Amino acid sequence: MEKQILQPRFKDSQHFKDFWTTGNGKQLIDLSGAEVSFDHFEKFSKYFYHVDEIGDEVVREVYFRKSYPEASREIEGYIRNGVSENDDVPESVKRLFNQTQTIPDWLDLNLIRSGAELCMRCNLDSLISLRDYCLIGGYDYAYLNKPLIVTEALKKGAVKRLSETLDFWVNVTRYDALEVHKKGYEFAIKTRLIHSYARLSIRKHYKNWDTENWGEPINSWDMMATYIGFSLVFMHSLKKLGNTISEEEEKGHFHLWKYVGYLLGIPEELLPDNKKQATEYFYLWTSVQPSSDKDSVLLAHSLLNESLENPILKYEFQRKNLRYLHICCTWYLLGYDVCKRLQIPDVPLKKGFPVTKKIINTIYDSTVSRDARIKKGNKDQMKVLTDYLRVTQNSNFH
After folding, report:
1. How many CB atoms sit inside 10 A of residue 349's CB?
2. Residue 347 near residue 304 (C-beta atoms within 8 A)
3. Who contacts 165 (Cβ-Cβ below 8 Å, separation ≥6)?
4. For residue 233, what are the CA distances in angstroms to 68, 165, 287?
5. What CA dihedral angle connects 29, 30, 34 and 39, to 10 degrees?
6. Of the candidates 235, 117, 112, 115, the residue with the CA atom closest to the CA atom of residue 178
7. Residue 369, Cβ density class (10 Å: 0-12 exposed, 13-18 middle, ≥19 buried)
8. DSSP annotation string for 19-36
9. What pLDDT tens digit does each residue of the chain (398 aa) get?
């Protein structure tokens, strides 16, 4: 059967028009100077049906022929020791590591360092942005969430999902983390193969996958949008919370996520260099995504209630207060329309905490040295990650 040519089918929908004329999309255009149109739609839309074939082949040749722990140990050996053309390993493994061990000629290590410093310098605002804007905002795109739903991510629980996302993000945003064989590089390769494993499992076991409407599971275009979440959307959130960002940090931030995307097997022409490109690419992708459905609401509420389930805080009143603060930030960062669609609870004085935070950030940025902020941010972020890993690796935690 001939595959239908993809159209920007939701471009006339109210949620699309509102986002790009009055909502956060309008703010992104104003922030970036983007010139949005559908002129290049076909150049990008083909990637809705495109996947990382190299990663998929590694999973077929390594993971599907051994036990999962045995395959994981084998891949870890390749990551830490490297792979050469003469090694007796599957051809797919050679192809994967030939790509990821080859440093692209555009890579600038000084820019990567500036991007990492921005992530660390903004301390807990970085984690608030990831959770209350990037992650929960992504749930508003119904088709993007389908792989999470069919792989039963809800059953695993939000604490575990958040811990895994935090583990990945922290480890790819530290100094020198993305050098070949280092920790961030390892996380990128492992995440790439987890995506391939999930995609092949969905194809095999989930017969009702609607490829025409949803695209391939974890397709390259959806991956692009996810990583624009980590770059453009994340940066927008930091600015909303009152953080100042230098031109060098901004360039570095996009450069860092371009390289992470490269390691993850996202085609290079989908990886934006700056906020203008990112906004223009994101505009096209959102035109094939309907707004929230019932699965979106379930995912959003699972994340909101994570604070109540998570035993990091000892007392119930602390957990309830943390949930309240996250709800306040979600309303502030995502805006009325998205929060209504995701059925985010309305709470009193919801602007109080984020507005106070914005004022404090303005003072903090102008009175504390950049180096001191980077050092403290790194320490505080590592503490949060350690707490999450301690909780989720406890065998009694479900």
Report:
1. 9
2. no
3. 130, 135
4. 34, 16, 17
5. 50
6. 112
7. exposed
8. HHHTSHHHHHHHHHT---
9. 345 689 999 999 999 999 999 999 999 999 999 999 999 999 999 999 999 999 999 999 999 999 999 999 999 999 999 999 999 999 999 999 999 999 999 999 999 999 999 999 999 999 999 999 999 999 999 999 999 999 887 778 899 999 999 999 999 999 999 999 999 999 999 999 999 999 999 999 999 999 999 999 999 999 999 999 999 999 999 999 999 999 999 999 999 999 999 999 999 999 999 999 999 999 999 999 999 999 999 999 999 999 999 999 999 999 999 999 999 999 999 999 999 999 999 999 999 999 999 999 999 988 999 999 999 999 999 999 999 999 998 644 43
Tell me, rounded to whole angstroms, the distance of Cα 355 from its chain centroid. 25
How many residues appear in the chain?
A: 398
* 80 residue type, one letter: R
| DSSP-assigned letters across all residues of 232-293 | IIHHHHHHHTT----HHHHHHHHHHHHHHHHHTT--GGGS-SSHHHHHHHHHHHHTT-----
Q: Token match 């290079």: residue?
A: 268
Question: What distance in Å separates the CA atoms of residue 387 and residue 183, rounded to the nearest whole number?
Answer: 19
385 token code pair: 């990650």
Query: Do 137 and 128 form a contact (C-beta atoms < 8 A)?
Result: no
Helix axes 247-263, 183-205, angle to 10 degrees: 50
Query: Rounded distance, CA 185 to CA 189, Å?
Result: 6
The total of other beta-carbon atoms located within 10 Å of residue 149's CB is: 17
SS3 call for 391: helix
What element of type H or E holds 314?
none
Structure tokens belonging to residue 263: 């390691």
Q: What is the CA radius of gyration of the chain?
A: 21
Token reading at 144: 């993007």
- State the burial class of residue 267 (Cβ atoms within 10 Å of its Cβ: 0-12, 13-18, 19+): middle
Sole residue written with tokens 């555009």: 106
